From TrEMBL:
Keywords: DNA-binding, Sigma factor, Transcription, Transcription regulation. Residues 65-84 are annotated as: Disordered. CDD domains: Sigma70_r4. Belongs to the sigma-70 factor family. ECF subfamily. InterPro entries: RNA_pol_sigma-70-like, RNA_pol_sigma-70_dom, RNA_pol_sigma70_ECF_CS, RNA_pol_sigma70_r2, RNA_pol_sigma70_r4_t2, RNA_pol_sigma_r2, RNA_pol_sigma_r3/r4-like, WH-like_DNA-bd_sf. Residues 102-153 form the RNA polymerase sigma factor 70 region 4 type domain. This is RNA polymerase sigma factor. It comes from Paenibacillus arenilitoris. NCBIfam families: sigma70-ECF. Gene3D superfamilies: 1.10.1740.10, Winged helix-like DNA-binding domain superfamily/Winged helix DNA-binding domain. Residues 2-67 form the RNA polymerase sigma-70 region domain. Pfam families: Sigma70_r2, Sigma70_r4_2.
Length: 164
């Protein structure tokens, strides 16, 4: 970790261009390297480490790009509101938070049936693809596909103004 940590960070940051994300991905890379060391042949170690770092950074970047703009915007609004909520009386802050959740749930209810279940499970119940697949009887790839299509549906049918 001491020998290659800064190198891995620079490599990941070169792909992501975000110091905060690069720190997170660097931690993931270090864990993956640690877990994979028993199978590693030490010839070409730096190349192997670099490949893991670049692949993990690319995966992270793709995952971030797949998230719907509405949900990313919702997270930003949530962070901004946390600052505002700290200044408000507790009852008013709680009421605003409940109203936000109600609006999001109402929007999710407007999704087509084939998407509603997986979106609710993934975003509202924080379940993994594997958990959703097991509960719905779908293949993991089908869950991924439905979430991807649901995000596209949301981008086409929902407007940012509806959440403000």
């Amino acid at each position: 970790m001491r020998a290659y940590g800064p190198y891995i960070y620079r490599t990941v940051n070169a792909v992501l261009h975000s110091p905060h994300d690069a720190e997170d991905v660097t931690q993931e890379v270090l864990l993956q390297i640690y877990r994979s060391l028993p199978e590693c042949r030490l010839d070409g170690l730096k190349t192997w480490i670099t490949r893991i770092a670049v692949n993990r950074a690319i995966d992270f970047k793709r995952g971030k790009a797949r998230r719907p703009e509405e949900l990313a915007g919702e997270e930003r609004m949530s962070e901004l509101r946390k600052d505002d909520l700290a200044e408000m009386p507790a009852a008013e802050a709680e009421a605003m938070e409940q109203e936000d959740k109600r609006q999001v749930r109402a929007r999710i209810e407007s999704l087509p049936d084939r998407y509603r279940e997986v979106v609710t499970a993934f975003y509202m119940e924080d379940k993994s693809y594997e958990q959703i697949a097991a509960e719905t009887g779908l293949e993991r790839k089908s869950v991924e596909s439905r979430l991807y299509r649901a995000r596209n549906w949301m981008k086409r049918h929902w407007r940012k103004e509806d959440f403000e």
